[in-house]
Structure formats: structure tokens, C-alpha cells
């Protein structure tokens, strides 16, 4: 760590007060937020120290939701020590085995089915012991979709949105929003993908759940199955989407008169909203936060939008615009 890294030195001193004066912190990763993670050992046991600047990423939602997830029957890291004012935590160490690293053509079906079977447990976490969770409502959705316009189009591509394109995008955004709010509303992790599921002690542990909200029933499933970091043939995705649909019926999260075709429409349009947002977030990570590695993932988000949008006539103009104009411009800047 550079000598100017004051928070690293504060975290080290705080960790030494919690454990012993000799622990040494080793950076293992940052993530797409402002958090950083460090590993250290004490009495031959490994732990994770978390630096989460309190003015940017408060730790209380993570701590409260960890308890609520565990009460629902889910596995998460244990919060062993924390200081809310400093924004520091010590967690149990789950190792380095992400679900992503275990996926291949032979394992994708059983592992994703196992991950999907956890979603009814996530769906039950509509509040913590202290707070009701926020709603993924029209205002929330609008804020997320604006990230695409503001960061991918305007900032990254310096793209001028003429009135006809603005009108088209507004119509698309309205259609996606209507599909999202019309679904049964359950608790959703909001970033449920193969890098946020850890394989540890023959169990799946969930991480990065601090942004859980109440929203559309299909959100976490499409987040998992149309993942920028693990891409599978559409036949695999469609089969697993049907598996989630069946799980929702089994756990009475969907009405028995809900047809799979209706669920598929919800699933597809919810995924489109997510990938519009993600494309904007990846651009924002580059321009605002200096995390340029995510630029290479923008084309995959656009490919998903083109592939899925092509299934529905109402998105034909969006698909043509992305395919002919936006995707080539994004790829030219890689």
C-alpha cells in the first residue's frame, strides 16, 4: 500500500486492536464499488478485513442483511467485528472459489439449479430486523436507466441524442418499467451472479447483498443466467429460466394461473433493463472511478440487449440502433 493510504493504516491499526499487534493485511481485491478487501491470518486462521468508506458505502445494510439472510436459511460471511463510524469490518474468510470458476458445460446445469433453488429464500427477506427494504419502483428504475444515457451515451461515446432517438428510448424505458412493476414483488439480491456466489465447505455462500430491495420476481434469475462474466447458449438459459419459474410455482411465489410465456416476457424485459443499466455502470466505473477493466464487458451487455430485444417486435428500432450505431462505437473505443 502507498504511504499516503491513510485508510489502510487505520484499518490495520483497528484490526490489530481486534486481534493482535502483528497481523499483516494483504490486499486481495476491490470491487465495482468503493470497498476494498484484505486477507490476514491470526492463530493460523484466515480472515477478511473490509474497508468501506462510511460516507460512500455504509456498512450497516450489509450487517443487517447478513443476519436476515442467515435467518432465512442462506449462508453468508459472518461479521465478526465492525466499526460503523470507521466503515471497517472483519468477516469470516470464504476462500477464493467463486461459482464462476466452477462453471463449464458439464456443471452449468446442476450448479445453476442449486443457485436458483436459493432464490425463494432470498425472496422472503423483505425487511431486516430494523428496517423495511426499499422498493424497486418506477423512480428507482428511472434512476438506473438514466445511467445508460448519462454515462455510456453522453460521457463515454460523446453521443448526441436527437429527438427521434430520445423518443424511442423513452418508449423502450416505459415498456420495460411497466413489465417490471407488473410482476409479483419479492426481495431481490440485485446483483445475483456467478462472482457473488462463493463455494465453501460444500455450500453456496452469498456475498455483496447489501443492496437488496423489493422488486420483480424474475430479477435475480435473469441476473444469474444472463451474466456478463459467464455466457451460455440461449437454450441453456431458457431451460434454467423455466426451472426458476417452476421453483416460483413450487414455493407459491407465483399464482398457479401464471403461464410460462408471461414469466418469460417478464424475465426477458427485466434483463434488458438490467443490461442497459450495467452498460452505463461499466462506463461510469471507467470515467469516474478509474476502473477501466469493465469497459471490455460493455459489448456483452449490448449483445444481450440485441439478442433478447430481437425476440419482440416492439424493440426492433432499439435493436437496429444498438446493432448499427452504438455497438460499433463501443467496440471502436476498446
How much is the radius of gyration in Å? Answer: 21 Å
Strand content: 5-15%
Q: What is the helix fraction of residues, given as a range? A: 40-55%
- Shape-level CATH architecture of the largest domain: Alpha-Beta Complex
Measured between the Cα atoms of the first and last residue, the distance is 29 Å
Overall number of strands: 9
What is the level 1 CATH name of the largest domain? Alpha Beta
User: Structurally, how many domains make up the residues?
Assistant: 2
Instruction: Write down the overall geometry.
Output: globular
Mean pLDDT: 96
Structural class: alpha+beta
Number of DSSP helices?
A: 12
Low-confidence stretches: none
Specify the biggest β-sheet. 5 strands, antiparallel
**What spatial order of strands do you see in the largest sheet?**
1-2-3-5-4
Fourth CATH level, the homologous superfamily of the largest domain: Aminoglycoside phosphotransferase (APH), C-terminal lobe
Q: Can you tell me the CATH topology of the largest domain?
A: Aminoglycoside 3'-phosphotransferase, Chain: A, domain 2
Describe the model:
The protein is α+β, with helices and mostly antiparallel strands. The chain has 2 domains: 6-92, 2-Layer Sandwich (Phosphorylase Kinase, domain 1), CATH 3.30.200; 99-332, Aminoglycoside phosphotransferase (APH), C-terminal lobe (Aminoglycoside 3'-phosphotransferase, Chain: A, domain 2, Alpha-Beta Complex), CATH 3.90.1200.10. It has 12 helices and 9 strands. The strands form 3 sheets. It has a 5-stranded antiparallel sheet with strand order 1-2-3-5-4, covered by helices on one side. A two-stranded antiparallel ribbon has the order 6-9. A two-stranded antiparallel ribbon has the order 7-8. Strand 2 (36-42) and strand 3 form a beta hairpin.
